[in-house]
Known about the structure:
Layout: H1 2-18, H2 22-36, H3 42-79, H4 81-88, H5 92-104, H6 106-113, H7 120-128, H8 134-166, H9 174-222
Amino acid sequence: xxxxxxEWLTQAxxxxxxxxxxxxxxxxxxxxxxxxLFLPGSLLTxxxxxxxxxxxxxxxxxxxxxxxxxxNFFTSRYFARNWIEKKLESRPRFRSLAHAIGLxxxxxxxxxxxxxxxxxxLVSYAAGLTRIDAKAFIIxxxxxxIPLSAAYAYAGALLGKVAAVQSGNAExxxxxxxxWIGGLVMTVVVSLLGIRLAxxxxxxxxxxxxxxxxxxxxxxxxx
Length: 223
């Protein structure tokens, strides 16, 4: 299944590459669909860097991630709130996530976007069930998506450069290789830092939720 999915995305990227300027629009459409359906898009993100380069690839992935998150957010808040609550009420992790977002607000949204281990679609659906301001959600999502999008797009751009060199379509001197590899190392470091910060934020939020639940239980017992 995973191999078929990777093959399908690779074919989609090839088609997007051949579509010229219109390919950027189709890339955004495909990326938003992946976000809505909880489908993995890492290969698509790396492909954006390989096709469009680091700068434009980063922008496309960031915009696509934000659009998908906004659609999930508003779907949860206005169009399918009851259905999503019933569908996910049996998942303690989801309830904890929604409660944590309600307590921490946009800073937790921002940190969650820095981490590839945080399920971004689930975060967006959970946020829609809280009272977080929509504008704060959108801005924190967009800003938070930039580092991770840049990291994946950079890796894709580097792979594209390697492929071009191997095919004889480009030549790169030793200094350029050093700059590219150094940049890749930096993106990995930034990604790992984001993972650590996000994990710490979620642990703190869950601990706070546990303390509040214990306090409420004590108050109930006292009555």
